[in-house]
Design goal:
alpha/beta, 10 helices, four-stranded mixed sheet, 13% strand, 261 residues
Length: 261
C-alpha cells in the first residue's frame, strides 16, 4: 500500500490517488547473442581463461541430461514458442498474465516472482519516509507539479528485458560470460520497434495509463517519468542484475541464452 507502491500518482492539494499497482513485466522473447569463437578448449585459450563463465555447457549439448521431469529451463525454452516467453502482472489484463504452457513450469514462476520483486525494489527506493532518494524524488516531483499548478499523474510500470549477452564458444563447450538485464520504463519498451512479444501488452497498458491521466498537464507527467528514469531506474536495474531476490530470474535467463544460441 501507499503511494510508493502504486502505478499512477495524481492529486491536488496534497491528495494522492492510486488506481493501479506498479507492477510491470518480464520479456525474454527476443534478443541477440554476441558469440565469440575461440579455437581449442577453454583451458588452452588465454582469452577464455581471462573470464569466469556464468554458465558452461559441454558440446554437443545433451538434452537427455536434463530431461528428468521435463522442467529444466533449457527444455522449457526449447519446448515453447518464443512468443510465450513473457509475463505481465497487470490488474487490467488478468487474461494476459502468462502463457499457459509457461505457467506450468518453475521457469514461469521465476519470471512472475521477479516481476513482483521489481515492484518491491522500486517501492523501497521511492518510500518517502524510509529512503532519502524517495524523499528527494517526491519533493522534486511535487514542487514541479505545484509550479505548474497541476495534478500529478504518471506510470511507474517497468519491464525487465535482455541486454546483449556475450558467449564464448570453444571446441568443447559454450560459455556464457555476460548476461546483462535491462529495466525499461513501460512507455520506452512499448515504443521500441525491436521489442519482444510482450510489447503489445505494454502498449495497451501505456494507453490505459494515458487514459487514467487524461486532462493532466503532460509536462508534469513527463517530468516525473524523466526524473524516475535518471534517479531511480539505474538502481532498480542494478538490483535486477546483482541482488539475491533476482537470482532465480538470472539463472533461467542464462539458460535462455543457451537456447537462443
Amino acid at each position: 500500500g501507499g503511494a510508493a507502491g502504486s502505478a499512477f500518482f495524481h492529486g491536488g492539494a496534497g491528495r494522492v490517488e492510486a488506481p493501479g499497482e506498479a507492477l510491470g513485466g518480464v520479456d525474454f522473447s527476443r534478443f541477440e547473442v554476441r558469440v565469440e569463437q575461440v579455437s581449442g578448449t577453454c583451458e588452452a585459450s588465454e582469452r577464455c581463461r581471462q573470464v569466469t563463465p556464468l554458465l558452461s555447457v559441454p558440446k554437443p549439448v545433451d538434452l537427455a541430461a536434463w530431461a528428468g521431469g521435463g522442467g529444466h529451463p533449457l527444455l522449457v525454452w526449447l519446448g515453447l514458442p518464443e512468443d510465450a516467453f513473457w509475463v505481465n502482472l497487470h490488474p487490467t489484463q488478468p487474461d494476459r498474465m502468462i502463457d499457459p504452457g509457461l505457467a506450468a513450469t518453475e521457469t514461469g514462476r521465476r519470471l512472475l516472482d521477479a516481476d513482483l520483486e521489481l515492484k518491491r525494489a522500486a517501492a523501497a527506493l521511492l518510500h518517502p519516509e524510509r529512503s532519502p532518494l524517495g524523499a528527494g524524488f517526491w519533493d522534486a516531483v511535487y514542487d514541479f507539479a505545484g509550479l505548474k499548478n497541476a495534478r500529478l499523474c504518471y506510470s511507474l510500470r517497468q519491464w525487465i528485458v535482455p541486454g546483449t549477452p556475450e558467449v564464448l564458444e570453444t571446441e568443447d563447450a559454450l560459455h556464457v560470460v555476460s548476461a546483462p538485464l535491462l529495466v525499461k520504463h513501460e512507455s520506452a519498451f512499448a515504443g521500441d520497434s525491436g521489442g519482444g512479444a510482450g510489447a503489445q501488452a505494454a502498449s495497451q497498458s501505456a494507453s490505459h495509463a494515458a487514459e487514467q491521466c487524461e486532462g493532466v498537464e503532460p509536462a508534469v507527467r513527463q517530468y516525473a517519468e524523466d526524473l524516475y528514469e535518471r534517479r531511480v531506474l539505474p538502481l532498480v536495474q542494478q538490483a535486477v542484475n546483482v541482488e539475491d531476490a533476482f537470482s532465480g530470474l538470472r539463472e533461467v535467463f542464462h539458460w535462455r541464452i543457451v537456447a537462443q544460441w
